[in-house]
Design goal:
about 350 residues; alpha+beta; Nucleotidyltransferase, domain 5; 5-stranded mixed sheet; 10 strands
């Protein structure tokens, strides 16, 4: 199934890119084969066909790109490329515009010819745009791509061009795509009588020094993000970094009400303010705690206890088992608090190498 990517609508945007005159080359298509021997390369090819029948995809974003060595390109331009002229090229000029290579030649017959390694969009090389999109959409950074290009001696667009393209083309397309997808998700969930969501916040840095934060709600059945908000500590309504997560949750839940989405269960971490918000302002929602956060908290407490008292050292070898045990307790207790407590207490026997006992259930 073909995956939809936001860059496939990028070329539908109309903008003046006079100050962004650069272009692309992107990554090569590689075939992953665990049994492939790098020293035994067998080129793949298509059947011969008339040049008139050779076609490329209508959408430039669907075209393949290739790594071509400079010496191979030079060999192609030793003769004039103009139709009807095969004179020897006397002058040869190479220009780089980001990852785009522009070659100008002048032959012995006086013909001038210019060739571009990439198609253009608003006088900008498409490859630079696609490369920027590939970096951003794959979750990479410009610095990583620059390291790769430096090792390969592969020219790419500069950092300022990358961020300019993000701002002018990529971010608007991402936003447009997100809104379109969110409308579809909301439309589907609004028809459901009750839904189960999970929510969590994320900040740009740990501790109390965070400046930005996001809060997201995800539908447990589909794994789709229903809503998210971005918060800034500089906002007068945000008291401090710790207040960003509860405020983000309130905004998301208010949006759910506005969109007539009925939430049956909401799973979050054990943030005190979050618990109060759900208890006081949204009592109709059943609030549950996320097991992953619970297990993480248990492990942190054991490690902290070891830091205070070295006698807890034997428990360090049990960390993963203790975490798994708590997860099993929650999954198998069938909602019975007493059974959950007894199963969890049994870890005291296991860590003491006692695996059979008769008390309790």
């Amino acid at each position: 199934m073909r995956r939809y990517l936001p860059w496939m609508t990028v070329f539908e945007m109309e903008d003046d890119a006079n100050d962004l005159d650069f272009v692309t080359q992107t990554e090569t298509e590689s075939e992953s084969d665990s049994e492939c021997d790098p020293s035994d390369e067998h080129p793949t090819s298509t059947d011969f066909e008339p040049i008139q029948a050779f076609t490329v995809p209508d959408n430039t974003a669907d075209e393949r790109q290739f790594i071509v060595f400079e010496s191979c390109i030079v060999n192609l331009f030793r003769k004039c490329q103009r139709t009807g002229c095969a004179a020897e090229v006397m002058e040869f000029q190479r220009m780089l515009s980001g990852s785009r290579l522009i070659i100008s030649t002048k032959c012995a017959a006086g013909c001038n010819y210019t060739w571009s390694s990439q198609p253009t969009f608003n006088r900008m090389g498409v490859g630079n745009l696609l490369l920027s999109a590939a970096i951003l959409f794959s979750g990479n950074t410009y610095a990583r791509m620059q390291d790769i290009s430096d090792y390969l001696k592969l020219p790419i667009l500069c950092k300022s061009q990358f961020f300019a393209l993000q701002k002018r083309y990529l971010f608007p397309v991402i936003n447009e795509t997100w809104i379109s997808c969110q409308i579809g998700v909301i439309d589907g969930l609004s028809r459901e009588p009750k839904i189960v969501l999970s929510g969590d916040g994320r900040c740009d840095s740990p501790g109390h020094s965070a400046k930005y934060g996001t809060y997201s709600l995800m539908d447990e059945d589909t794994g789709l993000i229903v809503d998210f908000v971005v918060l800034n500590k500089a906002d007068p309504s945000v008291k401090n970094s710790n207040a960003m997560e509860p405020m983000g949750l309130k905004q998301c839940l208010s949006n759910m009400k506005k969109w007539n989405i009925s939430i049956n269960i909401l799973t979050t971490d054990r943030h005190k303010t979050v618990r109060k918000i759900l208890r006081v302002e949204f009592p109709e929602i059943t609030h549950q705690f996320d097991l992953w956060h619970f297990c993480k908290s248990i492990i942190k407490k054991i490690i902290k206890a070891y830091g205070i008292k070295k006698a807890f050292a034997p428990l360090l070898g049990w960390l993963q088992s203790i975490s798994n045990h708590f997860w099993w307790c929650a999954e198998s207790c069938q909602g019975n608090v007493e059974i959950l407590q007894e199963k969890w207490d049994s870890i005291l026997y296991h860590t003491a190498n006692i695996h059979v006992w008769n008390d309790k259930k």
